[in-house]
Write a structure and sequence with these properties.
Elements: E1 8-9, E2 13-21, E3 25-32, E4 37-44, H1 52-66, E5 76-82, E6 85-91, E7 95-97, H2 98-105, H3 110-129, E8 142-145, E9 150-152, H4 157-165, H5 169-176, H6 181-185, H7 191-207, H8 217-226, H9 232-235, H10 241-250, H11 262-274, H12 298-316, H13 324-356, E10 360-362, H14 371-380, E11 384-391, E12 401-404, E13 411-413, E14 417-423, E15 428-430, H15 439-449, E16 452-459, E17 469-473, E18 479-481, E19 485-491, E20 498-500, H16 509-518, E21 522-529, E22 539-542, E23 549-551, E24 555-561, H17 580-588, H18 615-626
Helix pairs in contact: 1-4, 3-7, 3-11, 5-8, 7-10, 10-11
Amino acid sequence: MVDITGKVLGGRYEIIEKIGEGGMALVYKARCRLLNRYVAVKILRDELTNDEEFIKKFRHESQAAASLSHPNIVSVYDVGVENDIHYIVMEYIKGKTLKDIIDEKGKLSPEETIDYTIQIAEALGHAHKNHIIHRDIKPHNIMVTDDKRIKVTDFGIARAATSATMTNTSSVIGSVHYFSPEQARGKFTDEKSDIYSLGIVMYEMITGKIPFEGESPISVALKHVEEEITPPSYIDSSVPKNIEHIIMKSARKDQMGRYKNTEELLKDLRKVKYSGGDVELTDNTSNFDSQTIILPAVESNKKEKKKGLNENEKKKKPEKKKDKKGSKKAVFLGILLAFLLVNGIAFGFLKFKESFMPGEVEVPDLVGVQEEIAKEKIEEMGLKFIVKDRSYSSDFKEGEIMWQNEEAGKVVKKGFPIEVTVSKGKKKVKVPKLTGKDLGEVEFVLDDLGLKEGNIDYRYSDSIPKNIIISQSPQPDTEVEEGSAIDLVISKGPEIRTSTIPNLVGLQENEAKRAIVAKGLVIGNIRYQSNDNVEKGIVLWQSYQQGAEVQQNTSIDLVVSSGPEKPKKEDKKEPKEENKKGQKKDDNNNGKGNAGNGKPDSGEEEPDEGNGSGEEEGSEENNLQRE
């Protein structure tokens, strides 16, 4: 992958430096320009971004993880894609991974192990309550801050990566040592799978070692399925028995034998923590592998019978016959008597065995069998039928046995209890209201409820925006089985209709307007312009050429002739006699400072007009001087 240091993602996340690398992604420290804070940006590797199905699941799972809010879970701020770079923006944690701390110290103290495990279990418990299973709990995904606070990261991402990471060797090597047996088999995983992985993490914290090693990821996975874990105290005799008890119960092969949930696990963890480590834990998990049956003293009975047999033989021993014929008869009777005696003893022994020693039978295969039939079959064989649990299943119909505590073919004594889990069928969920929602939002809502998209029909709508749900089937609040498909009708927005631009030039203004409206177009701006050659009201210009294809409701602008330009009117009125001098003075003033002295600029003006007075005043003044 090309180094992206210095790049800005999403217009706000400025990549500063690479701070980590894993099988799925590269981790960078970045600065959020909008909020001016440091964040961690996880960039998916190129080989994972080629799988569209993975990308879709990754987006949904990351959005689900973003809904988690817990002090022991790394917060997810944003998910995005830019130029084929798929990234997650998370809380930046200043600290080390739990794997780094184990490697540095070699192993952790019992107090540290319990404290860290409680914090991890609390984080898992919060996620499980929100129906999110981590599926990849390992020390590499657990951060430890400088003040010893645990921060679990990568919630929900492993679910999306299940298929993709199996081809990524480095990722498998990093995870397979902590896989649960059901994950290794590719079977159904639940919150108990996270508890198994946490048990392995505890094992590594307290001993400094992982329970299974192998030459390849496959060989390690097989050991999780087939081999029993070596108790931690065999590796380190200082490991407290109560911590060993928690580890061994968490990491049992059988899901039903583990802690039922994180609440049960936390209960034992807190007992150990607050008792100072002296508390002894007991396992309340049912186990019928070796029942004790009290038998009578068989040997003494045998001796008594043998003694009685000898006495009878002595009593019944025939006396010697004097004649040969009597001797033959005696031999015959002796043989017959002996035969009857042996058969009687054998019959008595069988009766004794049936009375005091129950017979043995093979456990039948009950998986997939209806509950009533399985119960009848078990009881006919002299075994006890016990329904331990009922749970939803997408693989078994309602009433079918989905699990039994003893494998088919195992020999057990009569009276042995056979525990089963009965399927409740597929989980029923209420269909949410999807109408009015955006298609992108709907995908997340359905996935979160365990539903999926069915048939999608796109239709034009003038009133509902593009990609908004118009209708759905089944209707909201209808109960359906988990995994059901919901059919949707989605808006394509208004249908795009086009019109051909008509020739408007040369038409009267009103005619042009009617032609525009008739084509489904809109009258735009109309400007008027004088023209000596075109009469008033005729269209001179249009904003689109004739024959052009445009969307309906497009505005068409026009230029309309206002006719020939009108000549300017000249003022033919003579100025009044008394204002002639003032007019001439103003007309000849060029703004050069002559207006103030009243002198004309040329000598063409009459002298008496230069003083700014009228002719009559001048005449009267002359007359006065003459007088």
